[in-house]
Amino acid sequence: MNEMRRDRDAEGRARNARPRDGLGRPLPYGAPGVERQPEGVVRTPAETLREAQRLLDAGMPFHAHEVFEDAWKSGPEDERELWRGLAQLAVGLTHSARGNTAGGARLLRRGAGALAPFAGAGPYGIAVAALSGWARELAVRVESGPTVDAAAEAPCLRG
């Protein structure tokens, strides 16, 4: 493949075909990488939470973010902020594990804020209050400490 040209899919849309590691960082062409999450998958909320939890527990929050992003884009309008907030928590953990302390902390706090309206309802058994507390506490640690281990810091999505 000519690395000077952008990767394109069959419809001509730009797609990065480079392999990625577990934190979503691009690897050199030809290097073994982590299988990417397919885009645009419509899952039930339970399937979304199960798949995202599996990925978080495996230390792959970037991939969990993509699962939440699918739910955010395909779900009902009144739930989009919930899924977007969860996606922000996952990508905040991603940046924190990559060593981007400012970006990681900012996204963790933004995700916690997006979840705030759902704290009382706890839709689909999501532990909204606990996740928000986890995100805010991790944001403080990320700003003042070393890079975090994504798998060791994986939150529990359900109460």
Q: Can you offer a commentary on this structure?
A:
With 159 residues, the chain is mainly α. The chain has five helices and no strands. Helix 1 packs antiparallel against helix 2 (61-74) and helix 4 runs antiparallel to helix 5 (128-144). The longest helix has 19 residues, at 80-98. The chain is globular, with a radius of gyration of 16 Å. The chain starts with 44 loop residues before the first helix and ends in a 15-residue tail after the last helix. The mean pLDDT is 89.
The strand count comes to 0
Instruction: Compute the CA-based radius of gyration.
Output: 16 Å
Percent helix range: 40-55%
Q: Note the overall shape.
A: globular
Indicate the structural class.
Answer: mainly alpha
Number of helices: 5
Low-confidence stretches: none
Instruction: Report the biggest beta sheet as strand number plus sense, adding barrel if it closes.
Output: none
The fraction of residues in strands falls at under 5%
Q: Output the helix-strand order.
A: HHHHH
Distance between the termini: 47 Å
